[in-house]
């Protein structure tokens, strides 16, 4: 058995599979390649069977979203290391070599993210992950190379290997044993920010996430659910609150949750001023969905929560007040 499994989650993505699987097949000789299909109704299965017969298909019996979709599929994958790769990712030659080297030689590293660049503008970092993720005191995620909607050009400024707080679900490597110890992603998230929650839970248990620039991939982004979709707004706002409720230190929990609820209200007002009424309503629905899940979510808390999770006290303040558009020291 090979050490690493490349597992691509798919739902009605036949065109994406045709476009992006060739690079995965060409540059992943070290891996067993799987497509985990969330009960697609298009020609996805036929495309794989006819054009990529070397790929193993795992057929989920429903569209479980990103979180549960991977949880169900990975029960059937026994390689030591998982590479969870979006269907709109183009990989590059030798992309797996540095990953295997880190996992084989640094047992303290549990999760790895490669450099993620924009497929449509390859000189720039891509929104979902860029050069590794961090989180501020209030739970707002940001990346080296991307803060809110500001993307940096890749000029080699992040050509390094460095410990990070979270790795992007667009292309995330994790040891099988750690994934299973954490019980995988949280099914309640469905999609969006479940990878940050996973990394935060791993962090609370003492595991380290690493970014390496020696592995490079290109990501389209928004191929399944684009930025203008209110459903994405709903999932991001609800899941952010669920993540905080699960992982914040107890002494900070209720104060920060209260502040985030207030800040979400300001975000809703901003959507109204921009005429994006459906997005404002999505925030309202996200809050009510969070309230309905709060008791269940609090029961998932781990007593080993750590207080040194944040790198910046407030990325909102740095970005909007101090005009800090680029990742700083």
Indicate the topology:
Layout: E1 4-10, H1 14-26, E2 31-38, H2 44-51, E3 56-60, H3 65-73, E4 81-85, E5 89-91, H4 97-105, E6 109-118, E7 121-125, E8 133-135, E9 141-143, E10 146-147, E11 150-151, E12 161-164, E13 171-175, H5 176-181, H6 194-204, E14 208-219, H7 230-247, H8 250-273, H9 277-298, H10 315-321
Parallel strand pairs: 1-2, 1-4, 2-3, 6-14
Antiparallel strand pairs: 4-13, 5-14, 6-7, 6-13, 8-9, 10-11, 12-14
Helix pairs in contact: 1-2, 6-7, 7-8, 7-9, 8-9
How is this structure best described in words?
By secondary structure, the protein is of the alpha/beta class. The chain has helices at 14-26, 44-51, 65-73, 97-105, 176-181, 194-204, 230-247, 250-273, 277-298, 315-321, and strands at residues 4-10, 31-38, 56-60, 81-85, 89-91, 109-118, 121-125, 133-135, 141-143, 146-147, 150-151, 161-164, 171-175, 208-219. The strands form 3 sheets. Strands 1, 2, 3, 4, 5, 6, 7, 12, 13 and 14 form a 10-stranded mixed beta sheet that branches. Helix 1 packs parallel to helix 2. The relative contact order is 0.14.
């Amino acid at each position: 058995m090979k050490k690493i499994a490349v597992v691509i989650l798919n739902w009605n993505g036949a065109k994406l599979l045709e476009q992006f699987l060739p690079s995965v097949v060409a540059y992943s000789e070290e891996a067993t390649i799987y497509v985990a299909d969330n009960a697609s109704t298009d020609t996805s299965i036929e495309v794989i069977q006819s054009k990529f017969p070397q790929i193993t298909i795992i057929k989920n019996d429903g569209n479980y979203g990103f979180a549960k979709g991977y949880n169900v599929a990975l029960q059937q994958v026994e390689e030591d290391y998982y590479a969870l790769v979006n269907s709109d990712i183009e990989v590059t030659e030798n992309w797996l070599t540095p990953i295997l080297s880190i996992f084989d030689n640094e047992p303290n590293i549990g999760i790895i993210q490669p450099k993620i660049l924009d497929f449509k503008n390859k000189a720039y970092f891509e929104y979902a992950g860029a050069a590794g993720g961090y989180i501020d005191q209030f739970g707002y995620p940001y990346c080296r190379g991307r803060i809110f909607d500001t993307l940096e050009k890749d000029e080699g400024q992040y050509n390094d290997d460095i410990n990070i707080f979270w790795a992007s679900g667009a292309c995330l490597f994790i040891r099988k044993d750690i994934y299973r110890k954490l019980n995988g992603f949280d099914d309640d998230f469905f999609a969006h920010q479940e990878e940050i929650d996973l990394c935060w839970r791993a962090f609370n248990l003492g595991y380290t996430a690493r970014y390496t620039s020696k592995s490079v991939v290109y990501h389209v982004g928004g191929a399944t659910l684009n930025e203008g979709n209110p459903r994405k707004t709903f999932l991001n706002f609800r899941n952010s609150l669920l993540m905080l409720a699960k992982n914040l230190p107890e002494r900070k929990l209720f104060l920060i949750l209260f502040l985030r609820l207030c800040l979400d209200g300001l975000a809703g007002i901003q959507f109204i001023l921009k005429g994006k009424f459906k997005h404002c309503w999505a925030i309202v629905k996200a809050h009510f969905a969070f309230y309905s899940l709060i008791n269940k979510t609090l029961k998932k808390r781990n007593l080993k929560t750590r207080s040194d999770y944040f790198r910046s006290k407030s990325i909102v303040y740095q970005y909007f007040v101090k005009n800090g558009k680029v990742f700083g020291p």
